[in-house]
Amino acid sequence: MSVELLDSPRFYGFRVRRQIAGKTYQEYFSLKENGKRIRGAKRAAARSQADARDAELSVLQKKAREKAAKEVHLDAKGQVRGILCRLKSEKSGSKTPVFQIGVMSQMQNKIVNTTVSINKYGVDEAWHKAVDFFVAHKKISKRSRAYKDLLAAKPSPAQVRRLTGQTGKKRKQ
């Protein structure tokens, strides 16, 4: 519910405000008529009008969120937003390259995280496991264009080394 009662010297009435796909929708419903505050049935009518508009905007907001959830976003480095290539510090102190997945789960309605080891599975299989986890929680069909785009965004082994800061050469001790 994003209907607020504003009571200031500049305006007295209801404001409906929602953010939809990066754009703010804001509308005002005055509770003044001829310079005086309205009460009773007229006030209730203004409130129901504001609530109706809020319901319309709520439907648009929900559709926009669902659409955005199923889109693939790449950052400047070419990484998928939600799947990062990182070096994970193990308990032993060694650093392991992993794909780290952090996503707002549509199944659990909360943020879920996991990592997939690149050393254990190799770049190809690790990427596939990371994408499968990502699409399962985003409820993206494996037959969709978004799924194919995610698989195509797999970093090459050279990109993995660059993203994790590894040079590929063993260090002298």
Total of helices: 4
The assigned structural class equals: alpha+beta
Provide the helix percentage.
Answer: 25-40%
- Counting structural domains, the number is 2
Give the averaged pLDDT, no decimals.
87
> Secondary-structure element order, as H and E?
EEEEEHEEEHHH
Strand content: 25-35%
Q: Please mark out the parts with pLDDT under 50 across 5 or more consecutive residues, or reply none.
A: none
Adjacency order of strands in the biggest sheet: 1-2-3
Q: Tell me the span between the first and last alpha carbons.
A: 62 Å
The major β-sheet equals: 3 strands, antiparallel
Oligomerization category of the chains in this entry: single chain
The count of strands amounts to 8
Shape: elongated
Whole-angstrom Rg? 25 Å
Question: What can you tell me about this protein's structure?
Answer:
The protein is an alpha+beta fold and 173 residues long. The protein folds into two domains: 67 residues; 82 residues, no CATH class. It contains four helices and eight strands, in the order βββββαβββααα. The model has no long low-confidence stretch (mean pLDDT 87).
Short note summarizing the structure:
With 173 residues, the chain is α+β, with helices and mostly antiparallel strands. The protein has helices at 41-69, 118-138, 145-152, 157-164, and strands at residues 3-7, 12-20, 23-30, 32-33, 36-37, 83-89, 95-104, 111-117. The mean pLDDT is 87.
SSE blueprint and pairings:
Layout: E1 3-7, E2 12-20, E3 23-30, E4 32-33, E5 36-37, H1 41-69, E6 83-89, E7 95-104, E8 111-117, H2 118-138, H3 145-152, H4 157-164
Antiparallel strand pairs: 1-2, 2-3, 4-5, 6-7, 7-8
